[in-house]
């Protein structure tokens, strides 16, 4: 690790006041400490925000509010979450390991960096880590890489499960900066790589995520998260789906669908949602709707299977959630 | 084996370059110092030597440390407090060998900066046994041969104790899921599940 100064802040304002262009906020550390050891990140100052009073959840007319320093394991079992938004709880418990979930914060989870091996290995080029250096994944090891939202500069997947579920639920972030607080819809937060993969989101220098708001959605009680991966547990998604369905009898009246493991950002699928609306819940209709999932996909030499996989994950998630087998 | 630093070509760098060549990647010049993601010039970086003071309780004993802010809890335990029961496996948060409890919660000490445990209660595998008796989980690992080389065992035991206290030892399937953050390269998983099953329901 490169040297840095360390300071522990006690309030968001103090933390923001300490921040600069080469500083990093430290919460659980599960991304930051890892990437500092790998020399992928090298902040000159580390601002410990663990003492900030940004933990716990509340519910009001605007929805569910999750403090950004709440730990993944606590939110996964929070009574405000498990009943109203099972998709959130399931996405959290499908993430990482119990130890990491005890450490990692909600804000940090949303800002975690890609698991692309080229990004994590400073001996190789990577446009996300070092602008203009190249993207070895385009012709290299790309089995786990994205098929949606890619560019010739980057095809790294966004690793968060939670972000996929929050995307399906129209979540909004609250961030605090030196000029005050503002809200950012998660749908507007993540940036496609384009020609500038190192720019991953719309946070300004020094801005701190203080909370996440999930707007009310009564039928989110009927929601789930399905994650398919190389091993059953403690692994990142090859493809995942966050779904919520409103039913009237056996007819789907509204649906939310977002997918992970296939996009450079957490990927909402409005075309699948609209194809499901008004349809009878059946495997045939799920399959027909899911056919819209990989529209516009760009595959590389080893990740073409994800075009089929993402559709099957959506069909299986719908089938299991609704108990439909035919 | 002593690590060679001669010639400016480390073993890791050699393999990195060889892998790039075999993958058809053009390596125009040897990659010198990697450029960190931040744009801060190296000259503006703080000098090595700044320290932070940490007061915490480790296995019931108050400890005071003055450390470089980069020191992890794992290294502080092993190198400063001589508590070498906690093992350094991957040192990257992937294997679970370094699992300890902070305020009763299982965490990875390799990804925890010791500066962040100021004022906290840390328990390591050395702090589990009480009054000359092994913790029931430790005894169960012996009874069920839940180890081969033993390197991952202290992390497995710390996770197992936490898992039982969390109430996640209801079935073999549940144990496997909630022990998934601890890797055993010897492949003793079946015996580990048996050990956790034996200890479940006891006061651990």
Describe this protein with a few key phrases.
heterodimer, A: 5-stranded antiparallel β-sheet, 21% strand, B: 204 residues, 5-stranded mixed β-sheet, 6 helices
Describe the structure.
The complex is a heterodimer of chains A (326) and B (204). In chain A, the strands form 3 sheets. In chain A, strands 4-5-8-6-7 form a 5-stranded antiparallel beta sheet. A 4-stranded antiparallel beta sheet of chain A has the order 9-10-11-12. Chain A has a 3-stranded parallel beta sheet with strand order 1-3-2, with no helix packed on it. The relative contact order of chain A is 0.13. Chain A contains 13 helices and 12 strands. Chain A has 326 residues and is an alpha+beta fold. Chain B is of the alpha+beta class and 204 residues long. Chain B contains 6 helices and 5 strands. A 5-stranded mixed beta sheet of chain B has the order 2-1-5-3-4, with helices on both faces. In chain B, α3 (136-143) crosses α6. Chains A and B meet through β1, α2, β3 and α6 of A and α1, β4, α4 and α5 of B.
């Amino acid at each position: 690790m490169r040297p840095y100064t360390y300071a522990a802040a006690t309030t968001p304002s103090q933390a923001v006041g300490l921040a600069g262009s080469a500083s990093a906020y430290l919460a659980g550390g599960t991304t930051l400490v890892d990437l500092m050891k790998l020399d992928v990140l090298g902040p000159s100052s580390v601002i410990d925000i663990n003492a900030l009073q940004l933990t716990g959840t509340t519910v009001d007319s605007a929805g569910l509010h999750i403090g950004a320093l709440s730990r993944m394991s606590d939110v996964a079992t929070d009574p405000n979450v498990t009943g109203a938004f099972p998709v959130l709880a399931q996405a959290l418990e499908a993430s990482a390991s119990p130890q990491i979930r005890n450490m990692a914060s909600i804000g940090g989870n949303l800002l975690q960096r890609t698991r692309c091996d080229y990004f994590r290995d400073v001996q190789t080029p990577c446009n996300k880590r070092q602008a203009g250096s190249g993207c070895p994944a385009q012709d290299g090891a790309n089995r786990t890489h994205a098929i949606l939202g890619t560019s010739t500069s980057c095809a790294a997947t966004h690793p968060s499960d939670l972000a996929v579920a929050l995307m399906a639920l129209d979540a909004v972030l609250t961030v605090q900066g030196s000029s005050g607080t503002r809200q950012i819809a998660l749908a507007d937060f993540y940036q496609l790589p384009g020609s500038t993969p190192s720019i991953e989101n719309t946070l300004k220098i020094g801005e701190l995520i203080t909370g996440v708001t999930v707007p009310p959605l009564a039928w989110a009680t009927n929601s789930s998260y399905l994650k398919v991966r190389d091993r059953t547990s403690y692994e990142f998604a090859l493809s995942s789906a966050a779904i919520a369905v409103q039913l009237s009898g056996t007819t789907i009246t509204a649906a939310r669908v977002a997918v992970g493991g296939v996009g450079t950002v957490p990927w909402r699928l409005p075309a699948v949602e609209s194809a499901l609306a008004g349809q009878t819940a059946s495997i045939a209709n799920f399959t027909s709707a899911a056919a819209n999932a990989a529209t516009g996909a760009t595959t590389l030499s080893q990740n073409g299977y994800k075009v089929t996989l993402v559709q099957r994950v959506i069909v299986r998630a719908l089938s299991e959630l609704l108990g439909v087998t035919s | 084996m002593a690590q060679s630093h001669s010639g400016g070509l480390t073993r890791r760098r050699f393999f990195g370059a060889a892998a790039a060549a075999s993958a058809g990647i053009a390596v125009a010049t040897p990659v010198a110092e990697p450029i960190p993601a931040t744009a801060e010039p190296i000259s503006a970086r703080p000098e090595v030597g700044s320290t932070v003071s940490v007061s915490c309780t480790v296995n019931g004993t108050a400890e005071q440390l003055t450390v470089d802010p980069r020191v992890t809890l794992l290294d502080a335990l092993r190198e400063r407090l001589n508590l070498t029961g906690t093992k350094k496996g991957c040192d990257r948060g992937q294997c679970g060998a370094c699992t300890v409890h902070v305020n009763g919660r299982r965490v990875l000490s390799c990804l925890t900066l010791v500066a962040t445990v100021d004022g906290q209660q840390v328990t390591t595998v050395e702090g589990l046994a009480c009054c000359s008796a092994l913790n029931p989980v430790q005894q169960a690992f012996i009874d069920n041969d839940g180890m081969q080389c033993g390197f991952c065992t202290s992390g497995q035991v710390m996770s197992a104790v936490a898992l039982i206290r969390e109430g996640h030892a209801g079935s073999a399937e549940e144990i496997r899921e909630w022990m998934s953050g601890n890797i055993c390269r010897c492949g003793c998983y079946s015996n580990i599940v048996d050990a956790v099953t034996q200890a479940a329901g006891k006061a651990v």
